[in-house]
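User: Predict the complex with S-adenosylmethionine.
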Amino acid sequence: MPPTPSPRRDGHRVTEAHALNRNDAVAIARAFLPQHRFGNRAPYYYVRSKLASDPLYGGVVAILRDSRAPLLDLGCGLGLLVHTLRRAGVELPYRGVDNDEAKIGRARAAAAAADLSDTRFERMDLSASLPEHQGSVALLDVLQFLPYAAQERLLDAVVPMLTPGASLILRTGLDDGSWRARVTRGVDEFSRWVRWMNAAPTGYPSREALNRRFAAAGLIVDFAPLFGRTPFNNWRIVATRPV
Ligand SMILES: C[S@@+](CC[C@H](N)C(=O)[O-])C[C@H]1O[C@@H](n2cnc3c(N)ncnc32)[C@H](O)[C@@H]1O
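Assistant: Here is the predicted structure with S-adenosylmethionine placed in the model:
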């Protein structure tokens, strides 16, 4: 049975989320260097600074460290999660999907450059279709870009994908009226404006609604802040199917 870290008795996991150290960030970012000397180095610098500043990926590795369940990464972007997992020695089968053709192209090229095992990427619009899967699921900074109905459909579809011991790991802003929530929305809107994101944010879920949904499905739920040194209202929510 694929083991994932056992939740503590009070339902909270030990949180051990931190950004990557500089060496690991640089080593991973190298896979995003251009093939030609005068090619575009922006993805390299973006990946390096993102990995060195955002506790997101370390926070997911902490959950999946001992898991062997296949992982589906919904809205995977450049696939930074799989690079971080492999660097940490986590070898579970990985499949990333995203609707941005250019990001999927870069993700494939970087995975090939880094020679990542058991890794594949596909273009898919999550507001129109959903992949089949059994195992764990990552949904990191994606939910807010989907229309509300598609968010609901996606969360409903993900729950039956979780096999015993497997987890849904979600990072999202929460709609809690805080100043961090306002900054998060503002930056997501800015990312759309500068065309880094291909969609504007629609809405962020509330903690109560997520808790109710996952608890009703019999999952063990854990909320942990994942602010790091950022001003964002980022939370890691882990919903695990008991073994
Ligand atoms: C902020 S990025 C997060 C990327 C990745 N999850 C990570 O944390 O490194 C959000 C991603 O969601 C993707 N996305 C937005 N709407 C989507 C949709 N309808 N279907 C699939 N992917 C989508 C974007 O293309 C983008 O790569």
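The longest strand covers residues 167-173.
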